[in-house]
Amino acid sequence: MSFIAPLGTYFLTNDALKEVRKGDIVFISTEYDIEKYSTPQVIYEAVDYYPAGAIYIQKDTTLIDFIGHQMKHKLSNVKKLFWNIFSKNEAVNASVSDKTSVYFRNAFSKKGDIVSHVNNMPKSIDFFLFPRAPIDYAEQLKDLNYFVEEAQKKGAKVYFVFTPLAESTYNYGKIAVESVETQLKKQLKCEILGCAKDFIRKDTSFFDSFYHLKPATRDINTQRIIELYKKKQKTN
User: Fold this and answer.
1) How far apart are CA 200 and CA 203, in angstroms?
2) Distance from CA of residue 21 to its chain's centroid?
3) What is the pLDDT of residues 98-149, one digit of tens each?
4) With CB atoms 3.0 to 4.6 Å apart as the test, which of 24, 104, 199, 236 could cross-link to 156 if both were Cys?
5) DSSP-assigned letter for residue 205
6) Rounded to the nearest 10 degrees, what angle do helices 138-153 and 174-187 cross at?
7) Is 146 left (phi over 0), alpha (psi -120 to 50) or beta?
8) Which tens digit of pLDDT belongs to each residue from 74-105?
9) Is 69 strand, coil or helix?
């Protein structure tokens, strides 16, 4: 399963947990700069399409915050309504065969791989829009460990896999990456396949962000995960 990172680890892990079954082998991969909770703008928009996700919203601490977030969301929906009426909504006619669309409902193959970008030209990427200081991953780890424990109770086996990352981004934010890796290796309650450096790729391997691989490199990345998984099985 693949989700948009701004939803946060609390939403993602709890929602994914509902799909875990006995005998499953689960690979978790989270971004280095992912937060525990989503931003109000993202979560409210997601809940419009997926009402069951409302239980994963971080509760507002004050009534003023609650009213403010609700009003901003309602106004945003009104703005989108007018935009769709008076302008052409490209997403309505988006298809895998076109050369522009990437994120839309039918962008995935039957296996769950996003394939909408295979015909598209790569987009400009800011490889340095990434933290440089150490990242506190404590709250994210709580969510990950809860997922691991509950998945294991269901009879599943869980592994953590480091996310692909562009070489320039890694060099720029090496301290941040290493801080997350250290926390994961000390506190995560499941086996980890390889290390962060195993998934560093050349900048030219990425499509529209320093996390999103081009189709060919994605296949290489998947093969690397399989190799590390097989190696782990031999050592166990």
Assistant:
1) 9
2) 21
3) 988 888 888 888 887 889 888 899 999 999 999 999 999 999 999 999 999 9
4) 24
5) G
6) 40
7) alpha
8) 787 777 777 666 666 666 788 888 988 888 88
9) helix
